[in-house]
Design goal:
mainly alpha, 6 helices, single chain
Length: 180
């Protein structure tokens, strides 16, 4: 019973944390605010972000209130899960683990975003809000790789190079699970 409860808590919070992270990326790249998917993400995340928007200032395009809420929520959930298994960690360790999870989640978000964007590019779609939103987030990330590897025969190999780099970074970053 306890392990299934932990699974449900982790799954729901991980989905919400990914939604927060996607909003962070959308705001950073100034994606289309009127996109229906962007509107859904904003409506889902506004209740937890709005109280902090006026307290924590933005740094350029970076909405630091989302980062703060992300680390705060991840730290709380981590503390709660550790509490359920009767394990303790210092607050600094919990915040460090949360920061590592933030980086790993960002890498996962971009990895899956690149894969989904590449697969969807194979199909002839008219306007699709998901494809439009992914393009606005993934294309700025892929543009430096496109300068290194130009199109070859109409095929874009830059996502492969980007995925290799993301995987290398993921391997180089300490896994937060080893601390738990």
């Amino acid at each position: 019973m306890q392990s299934s409860l932990i699974y449900v808590i982790q799954t729901v919070t991980d989905l919400y944390l990914m939604t927060l992270l996607f909003r962070l990326v959308l705001e950073f790249f100034k994606a289309d605010y009127y996109n229906p998917i962007a509107q859904l993400i904003i409506k889902i995340t506004n209740p937890i972000i709005n109280p902090f928007k006026f307290i924590i200032p933005r740094i350029g395009n970076l909405n630091t209130s989302i980062l703060f809420v992300w680390i705060l929520l991840q730290s709380f959930i981590l503390w709660l899960l550790l509490f359920t298994i009767s394990r303790e960690l210092s607050y600094t360790n919990i915040i460090f683990i949360s920061a590592m999870k933030l980086i790993n989640s960002l890498i996962s978000l971009y990895t899956w975003g690149i894969i989904i964007h590449a697969v969807l590019s194979w199909f002839p779609l008219n306007y699709n809000p998901l494809v439009a939103l992914l393009s606005q987030v993934i294309n700025p990330f892929l543009s430096p790789f496109r300068k290194i590897i130009p199109l070859s025969g109409g095929i874009d190999f830059s996502p492969i190079l980007a995925l290799i780099l993301l995987n290398a970074i993921s391997i180089a970053i300490p896994s937060p699970n080893i601390y738990i």
